[in-house]
Specification:
The protein is of the alpha/beta class. Helix content is 50%, strand content 15%. Helix 3 links the parallel strand 4 and strand 5. The N terminus is likely disordered.
């Protein structure tokens, strides 16, 4: 029996190696300041362009670079889904560790480009050339899914007008200061803001750690653009500009590993903040044609600039030169935050965890303000555009 199992394992590895060799025929070329142009192997279609025959179902794409510590949990969580994926494809972006080996042993299809793609966007564009299903779901290699996450997400894609959908995000670990701050941040955003945005079919972003798309839409739009470091927000806004709607499914839950230390947090917030500012630059001319998106972007800009200056400058000056009690203004919006947070925490049976994490949220809030203001300064004032995609762990 052991010999038979060993032979089966060798056959699987040989087949995977063959897939990787075939994968070199699927290429992604990128033009400056534009979305990647994908060349997909297949039969010649109209106009002589390559076409693909899509089957029903969903393929899961997992871009990964040096993720040997988490890739097994991610792949297994997909394998446990109540709705099985057509295929699980791990894009091993020239990892220097055993990421690809671990994923392959678990039964995932592993594709590996000849050289590192340089960003999550280009890695995803490489991976989508192997997708043969009507829907494609992307998750980060450090994210796990609730067992019914795909099942809960699929109904959102029933309407042909829907180009993408994403679910509820909860940090997998809630121990350190930064993890606790992010935990409250997510409970607040996904319990309060996201349902409102979903009512108008215009979430600010289909979260890149866990989102589903129509394969044909992604291909027609040129894939995930590398013109910004916020490829998920960039694609979301591009879908709006092409008349598509985006949905939010609150019952579809994923659990990413969030920053546990400041170094990881610094890299993540640098990328997120720069991505938002870069998306503003790229989409500014077309935002006016999407009214609700324009409104939520304006709100985000207010929070990132005017509110940030009030927190960093006005309130401290008032507390120092007028009266110390002005410091209480930092808590002025506490009721508006704590009510939706505690309602969601109660639903999840996590009231004590949420109460203990509220102070961390205010610490993280200051840090967020700093990185957003820094991004505006770098991108618009100094002209120091962030181009390097750095995940942070």
């Amino acid at each position: 029996m052991r010999d038979a199992m060993r032979d089966i394992g060798k056959d699987l590895e040989a087949m995977t190696g063959l897939l990787e060799d075939v994968g070199t025929t699927a290429t992604v070329t990128a033009a400056p300041e534009s979305a990647a142009v994908m060349q997909v192997p297949g039969e010649a279609g109209a106009g002589g362009k390559a076409s693909r025959r899509l089957v029903a179902g969903v393929t899961v794409l997992i871009p990964a670079y040096n993720e040997e510590a988490s890739i097994a949990d991610t792949v297994r969580s997909v394998q446990r889904q109540t709705v099985a994926a057509v295929e699980i494809i791990v894009i091993d972006d020239c990892s220097k560790d055993r990421t690809g080996e671990i994923a392959r042993r678990l039964g995932a299809t592993v594709v590996r480009p000849e050289k590192n793609q340089g960003s999550k966007a280009t890695a995803l564009n490489y991976g989508i050339t192997f997708v043969r299903s009507e829907l494609v779901l992307t998750i980060d290699a450090d994210t796990t899914l609730a067992d019914d996450a795909i099942e809960k997400l699929l109904p959102a894609m029933a309407d042909e007008k829907t180009g993408a959908a994403s679910g509820f995000v909860v940090p997998r670990n809630v121990r350190t200061l930064w993890e606790r701050g992010r935990y409250i941040e997510y409970l607040y955003a996904f319990a309060f803001y996201k349902p409102i945005q979903d009512y108008y079919r215009k979430p600010l972003i289909a979260s890149g750690c866990f989102a589903i798309y129509r394969t044909s839409d992604v291909v027609q739009l040129g894939g995930w653009s590398h013109r910004t470091v916020g490829e998920d927000m960039d694609l979301t806004w591009t879908l709006y500009e092409h008349g598509k709607q985006v949905r939010y499914a609150a019952d579809a839950v994923c659990y990413p590993i969030e920053p546990h230390n400041f170094d990881f947090l610094r890299k993540q917030l640098t990328r997120w903040s720069a991505g938002f500012v870069q998306c503003l630059r790229v989409h500014w001319g077309t935002l006016w044609n999407v009214p609700f998106l324009r409104m939520i972007v304006a709100t985000a800009l207010w929070d990132a600039t005017i509110a940030a200056l009030a927190f960093f400058v006005a309130i401290p000056l008032l507390a120092i030169f007028v009266h110390p009690l002005f410091i209480l203004l930092y808590l002025a919006d506490l009721p508006g935050i704590i009510i939706p947070v505690m309602m969601e925490a109660s639903r999840r049976g996590e009231v004590r965890r949420a109460l203990a994490s509220i102070p961390a949220f205010y610490v993280l809030r200051f840090v967020n303000f700093y990185f957003v203001l820094k991004a505006f300064g770098n991108e618009f004032v100094v002209g120091k555009r962030l181009a390097k995609f750095e995940k942070g762990h």
